[in-house]
């Protein structure tokens, strides 16, 4: 088969390149919307307290992560701020509450809703800019499901509590915790935080607990959260959760569920 354009100065461009300059109306609208969004981190404590410390930042993402931090037992905390999303500098909506563990240089970020992937970078920058040069390590409380998870162990029976860890290159290896295997991927805010920490050589651990589901509804129970406690134990942090508090949090905040698509069943 002969290709007449092979000897030309530039061969015929593939179709996907030919269409690169023709963004859809939906894409243009999404970009315009994103440009109008700002994220602010507001603290009600003296900034000098931040500057004088070396902080551990713990992110409880919407789902089991935030439920875990809301259910901590024998850990006294003080509310010190919020992370707010503003559209055109108005209509501020709180997306995360910030708590400091009393008498410790530990900040907890409890996200009330899932952060969309396109908003992840502004949230990451807004938070880390506040602690620039003052972060000792970062822990992200994340989750994954067995469906679609790729493992090199043949016929492995994945049963919670089960934890996988993805860490940055500057973080000391936790030998007793299995790594989140390649080619599995994290996404949205978790990916943004880990990527930021990798770029700035901040030790970061993404703790991914196995989260079960039934009829498309993601479940949170004692086994789901117990995996996080195992991870914190290896980091030397004595964090434990209270089962009764967990059930109350699920009832009050999530109406007994965690995901936003509890009413949908896909066949």
TrEMBL record:
Pfam families named in the record: PAC1
GO cellular component terms listed in the entry, alphabetical order: endoplasmic reticulum
Highest taxon, organism lineage: Eukaryota
Record keyword Transmembrane present: no
One BP annotation, GO: proteasome core complex assembly
Family designation: Belongs to the PSMG1 family.
Protein name per the record: Proteasome assembly chaperone 1
Species the sequence originates in: Mucor circinelloides f. circinelloides (strain 1006PhL) (Mucormycosis agent)
């Amino acid at each position: 088969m002969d290709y007449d354009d092979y000897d030309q100065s530039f061969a015929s461009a593939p179709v996907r390149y030919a269409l690169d300059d023709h963004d859809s109306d939906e894409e243009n609208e999404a970009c315009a919307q994103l440009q109008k969004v700002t994220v602010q981190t507001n603290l009600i404590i003296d900034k000098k307290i931040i500057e004088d410390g070396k902080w551990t930042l713990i992110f409880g993402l919407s789902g089991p992560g935030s439920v875990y931090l809301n259910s901590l037992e024998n850990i006294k905390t003080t509310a010190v701020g919020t992370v707010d999303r503003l559209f055109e500098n108005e209509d501020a909506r709180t997306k995360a509450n910030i708590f400091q563990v009393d008498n410790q240089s530990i900040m907890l970020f409890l996200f009330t809703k899932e952060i969309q992937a396109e908003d992840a970078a502004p949230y990451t920058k807004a938070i880390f800019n506040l602690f620039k040069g003052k972060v000792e390590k970062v822990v992200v409380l994340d989750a994954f499901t067995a469906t679609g998870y790729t493992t090199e162990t043949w016929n492995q029976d994945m049963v919670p509590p089960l934890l996988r860890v993805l860490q940055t290159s500057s973080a000391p290896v936790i030998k007793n915790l299995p790594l989140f295997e390649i080619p599995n991927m994290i996404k949205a805010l978790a990916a943004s935080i880990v990527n930021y920490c990798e770029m700035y050589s901040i030790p970061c651990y993404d703790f991914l607990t196995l989260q079960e589901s039934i009829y498309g509804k993601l479940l949170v129970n004692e086994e789901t959260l117990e995996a996080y406690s195992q991870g914190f134990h290896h980091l030397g942090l004595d964090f434990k959760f209270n089962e009764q508090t967990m059930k109350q949090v699920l009832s009050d905040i999530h109406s007994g569920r965690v995901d936003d698509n509890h009413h949908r069943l896909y066949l």
